[in-house]
Amino acid sequence: MGIQTNTGENMSKYIIETQNLSMQFGSKLALNNLNLKIEAGGIHSIVGSNGAGKSTLFKLLLGVITPSVGESFILGNNSQKLGPKDRGNIGFVNEEHTLPDWMQVAKLIDMEKSFYANWNDAIYKQVIGNFNVSHDQKISELSRGERAGVNLACALAKRPQVLILDEPTLGLDVVAKQAFLESLLFTEKNDDCTVIYCSHQMDEIERVADQLIVMEQGELVNSSTPEVFCQRIHYWVVDFPGKSPHSDQIPGFLQQRNIEGEIHYMVIDQDLSLKDVFIKLGASSAFQSEVSLQQAVNGFLSRNHHKPEAENQNV
Questions:
Q1: Comparing C-alpha atoms, which of 132, 191, 133 is closest to residue 160?
Q2: Structural domains counted in the chain
Q3: CA 284, CA 253: separation in Å to the nearest integer?
Q4: For residue 81, which of 58, 101, 61, 100 has the smallest C-alpha distance?
Q5: Each residue of 87-105: pLDDT tens digit?
Q6: Strand locations in the chain (E)
Q7: pLDDT in tens, 225-235
Q8: Same-domain pairing of 111 and 157
Q9: Most buried in the list 8, 86, 183, 239, measured by CB within 10 Å?
Q10: Which uninterrupted H or E stretch holds 208?
């Protein structure tokens, strides 16, 4: 049985939920029995390699496409049955920063105000002030960073209950990216707003994420705080005077690198007793070191490499 909608007696505590959600495109399984639960509040970052299913998930949540199997819910409503009022509580910013090129910025803002009853002009001005935008410019005259600023300012000014950001800083220069992230983090927004932030830029994820969701080949493989995720993964720096063992002999093996005669192993879910394993395998020394979030995510995803033909599929 699906989640009750806003008109039902039992409202789900989850802002987003999927139940056995699968999506097939021909021979490509973009989502595979995905069961995802996101509670209200905070910034939830979704990461994964190309082809992990992130874009497909967003399209399903927004009701743009119909799932092959299963259901998805946003704000307690079935994604396939979203009405105008429901959509008014959902903000979405994509990597293309799609806006009507022929409109002046001022005309765009007037139109947005007329559509959204919760529009907050103070929030719009606070965000747009971080970008060099003149309201008499046409959208087509704006730089990519300026378009991103207008897009974010509009999204936040609508005071949505959930804001989905799909690769919003892709292609932005350093200055525009900094302005975008600071606008997101420090702008007053709806206290109930939950942000879903998808990015390949791990420096951004480290800065903004309260929760880390990792997807791989259409499946959910991690949902935790970034701190808890990093605590699961460590580097071990090991010196083998003779031949090093095969990776199959290393518990929790993710990847390895040879650096100046020492082997740097990345492992998951192993404690300090792993040192005894290395010594038994012939190591003269072994010590553990911490990893960054970027190193942890990259190492975690490296354990199952995608097939080459799937690398560039935008699903």
A1: 191
A2: 2
A3: 19
A4: 61
A5: 989 999 988 888 999 999 9
A6: 14-25, 28-34, 37-39, 43-47, 69-74, 77-78, 90-93, 162-166, 194-198, 211-216, 219-224, 233-239, 253-259, 262-268, 285-289
A7: 999 999 999 99
A8: yes
A9: 183
A10: helix 202-208
Identify the domain containing residue 122 by its residue range.
Answer: 14-224
Please count the residues of the chain.
315
Residue 260: the pLDDT is 82
- Does residue 190 sit in the same domain as residue 81? yes
The tens digit of pLDDT for each residue in 29-81 reads 999 999 999 999 999 999 998 888 999 999 999 999 999 999 999 999 999 99
Residue 240 — left, alpha, or beta (φ > 0 → left; ψ -120 to 50 → alpha)? beta
Tell whether 47 and 192 lie within a shared domain: yes
**180 & 41 share domain:** yes
Q: Residues 130-154: pLDDT tens digits?
A: 998 999 999 999 999 999 999 999 9
* Nearest-angstrom CA–CA distance, 43 and 255: 29
The pTM of the full predicted model, rounded to 2 decimals, is: 0.86
Task: Pick the closest to residue 215 from 235, 194, 199 (CA basis).
Answer: 199
The 10s digit of each residue's pLDDT in 253-266 is 999 999 888 899 99
Cα separations in angstroms, 127 against 29, 131, 221: 39, 8, 34
Q: Is residue 8 part of a domain?
A: no
Q: Could you tell me if residue 49 is inside a domain?
A: yes
**Residues 183, 87 within the same domain:** yes
